[in-house]
Write a structure and sequence with these properties.
The chain has 310 residues and is α/β, with parallel strands linked by helices. It has two domains: 3-117 and 188-309, P-loop containing nucleotide triphosphate hydrolases (Rossmann fold, 3-Layer(aba) Sandwich); 125-184, Histone, subunit A, CATH 1.10.20.140. Helix content is 54%, strand content 9%. The protein contains 15 helices and six strands. The protein has helices at residues 3-8, 21-32, 57-62, 79-95, 107-115, 125-138, 140-150, 152-157, 163-176, 180-184, 206-222, 225-234, 249-256, 262-287, 303-309; strands spanning 11-14, 34-38, 65-66, 99-104, 198-203, 292-295. A six-stranded parallel beta sheet has the order 3-2-4-1-5-6, with helices on both faces. Helix 3 links the parallel strand 2 (34-38) and strand 3. The radius of gyration is 20 Å and the shape is globular. The two termini are 13 Å apart. 35% of the residues are buried.
Length: 310
């Protein structure tokens, strides 16, 4: 890699939720004169700053940030759209002479950037609208039975309650006549060359992660998470939308509706977070074994080594 390529090669920072990767991203971006690009599937939603632990307004003012809070909760953001948005953000960063620091906890997004996406043809609007209307009218379980009749492989992979993915599988098989499983075996071109990217994986012991995540949720409550969810409820959105399934939304909705106490909701949300951390760690073990591990507890003392590595 040439010196010019190295100067602007992307820096990718991944890790489980509450691991401290956002703090590292800010430190690195300040060190290299970079722009921070979001790779978290929930931090894209406009209405969920607190519950998704998006950077604060003060943090956003310190450095350029991209792809944070720019999608309304009424939309379902996708990996395909993410890749297209990152392409634009990378082009803008290069034009400004800034190095991209891509940070987040959504492993699929990093996989899409480094390995490419399946070249699934665009779905016609009429087909898309039909299946979304069917989902509204009939529900996920009924659509799952349709999928089992038309595409048994995808039906076996998907939970009967996963409306978004069931609809996607039905759209694809109707549009193309081929199972989504077939398309997923075909890879597109990667956007970022692994050989030219710095890949850092921030981690902590699981007990420490759980403790940090629990304390963070308590801070979210103190910072107004309940009011944030109350405003989300006022939008009367489809409960199957991704934003409505963000960690903490459903337990806090139960509080607002008088179905449980705030204390019980907080415990439920913390349990959700622990389950999510476990899924993230499983993904990391399967897909990120070649990334450079950065241990959070050594981050400050090893900062010179980290900066030298990048």
């Amino acid at each position: 890699m040439s010196d010019a390529q190295n100067t602007l090669s992307p820096i990718l920072i991944a890790g489980p939720t509450a691991s401290g990767k956002s703090a590292l991203a800010i430190a690195i971006a300040e060190h290299v004169g970079g722009v921070i690009i979001n790779a978290d599937s929930m931090q894209v939603y406009r209405e969920l700053r607190i519950l998704t632990a998006r950077p604060s307004p003060d943090e956003e003012a310190r450095l350029p940030h991209a792809l944070y809070g720019f999608v309304p909760a009424s939309e379902a953001y996708s990996a395909g759209r993410f890749v297209a948005d990152v392409a634009n953000a990378l082009a803008t960063a290069r034009q400004a002479g800034r190095r991209a620091v891509i940070v987040g906890g959504t492993g699929l997004y990093f996989k899409a950037l480094l390995e490419g996406l399946s070249p699934i043809p665009a779905i016609e609007a009429e087909i898309r609208e039909h299946w979304r209307a069917e989902a509204e009218r009939r529900g996920a379980a009924d659509l799952h039975r349709d999928l089992a009749a038309r595409d048994a492989r995808m039906a076996e992979r998907l939970a009967s309650s996963d409306t978004q993915r069931i609809v996607r599988a039905l759209e694809v098989i109707e549009q193309t006549g081929r199972s989504l499983a077939d398309w997923q075996q075909v890879r597109g071109a990667p956007m970022i060359d692994e050989a030219q990217a710095v890949r850092l994986l921030v981690t902590l012991d699981r007990e420490d992660l759980h403790a940090r995540a629990g304390a963070r949720f308590d801070r979210m409550i103190a910072s107004g998470a309940l009011d944030e969810v109350r405003a989300l409820e006022a939008l009367q959105l489809n409960p199957d939308l991704p934003a409505m399934r963000a960690i903490g939304v459903r337990p806090l909705l139960a509080v607002i509706r008088g179905e449980c106490s705030l204390e019980a909701a907080a415990e439920a949300a913390k349990a959700e977070t622990r389950q999510y951390i476990k899924r993230q760690e499983t993904w990391i073990k399967q897909n990120m074994i070649t990334w450079k591990i950065i241990y959070k507890k050594y981050m400050e003392s090893k900062s010179r080594d980290i900066f030298a590595f990048i």
